[in-house]
Amino acid sequence: MAFHLLQRDRKGGLQLADALSNAMTEIGHCQQCRTFTEEEICHICSNPKRKENGQLCVVESPADIAAVEATGQFSGRYFVLMGHLSPLDGIGPSDIGLDVLDYRLRQGDIGEVILATNPTVEGEATAHYIAELCHEHQVSASRIAHGVPVGGELELVDGTTLSHSLMGRQKI
Amino acid sequence: MAFHLLQRDRKGGLQLADALSNAMTEIGHCQQCRTFTEEEICHICSNPKRKENGQLCVVESPADIAAVEATGQFSGRYFVLMGHLSPLDGIGPSDIGLDVLDYRLRQGDIGEVILATNPTVEGEATAHYIAELCHEHQVSASRIAHGVPVGGELELVDGTTLSHSLMGRQKI
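YS: structure for the whole thing
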C-alpha cells in the first residue's frame, strides 16, 4: 500500500495520513460504555430508544458491538470491557472497567445483563466474575448460548461444543 | 493408496480387499436404531444400561453417533435416520425410518427424544417433523442448542448463529 501511494497517489497518501492522525488524537472512549467514539457519549448510549428494554450487553471489544448489531436481534445498550480478566498478565477488574460497570449497575436502570464475552476460557471466567457482580446488585445476568453453529454438520463440530449443545437443549 | 499397495504391499492389498468385501456383505442395519452393525441389534441398543434414562437421541448418520459418543455426555440410546427429509428429492418420512420410530415411540419406554439432526435447513425441518410425531405420542422432544462454538471469537461467528445464541441465552 505504501509503494502504491508513493508511486501513484501522493495526494491520497497525505489525506490518509491526516485522517489517521485525526483519528488518533480525536477518538476517545464513550463515558458510559467505553467503546470508541468522537463524542463524549456514543450514538448508541445517547439514543433514548435503546434504554427502553433495560438490557445491557457486555462484550470484549468494539468489533463485537458491530457483530451483535449485524444480527438485528438486540435493541439495548452495550458495555465494552476492552479485553478480559487475565490475572497472569496483571489485568484485573479495574483494567476492564468493572468499576464503571459497578457504578452503572448501581443506578438501577438496567434490568438484565447479557454476557457476550468470547466463548474462550478467559471470556467464561470474565463472564462469571461479572455475573457475581450483577447478583450483588440484584440484576439478572444471562450468558449467550453455546452450541452447534447454524449450517454446519454435527460430525464436524468439536466435542466440547457438542456437549454444551446437548446440555443446553431446549424443548420444542 | 492403490499405487502404494501395488508396489509395496500386495499381501496387505488382498487382506484389505477381503475385509472390504466382508464388510459389504456382512454389515446390515440394527433393527432398533438403524445404525450399521454386524449383529441383529447393535451393541448400544443391546446394552441394558443405556435404556435406564429413557432418552433417545435422533441423528442423521452413524458418524454422528460417534461424535455424540465422543462427548461422553449422553448415556441413552440412538435412532439413526440415514438422511433427512427432502421432499424435492423424493425422500419422505418412511425413507428415513420414521415408521420404525413411530413404532418405538408407541412402546412407551422412551421418556425424551433429543433431536440432534444437523443444524441445516433440512435438519431443522426434519427435527420439527419428528417433534410433531413425539407430541402425538405424548413424548417430550428437545432440540440441541444452537450458539457460538466454544473457543472461538465472537466477531468471527456468523450473524445467524450469533442471533440464535442471543435468543437462547441462559441465566447464570
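YS: worth flagging: The CA atoms of residues 125 and 136 of chain B lie 17 Å apart.
IM: good catch. Also DSSP finds six helices and seven strands in chain B.
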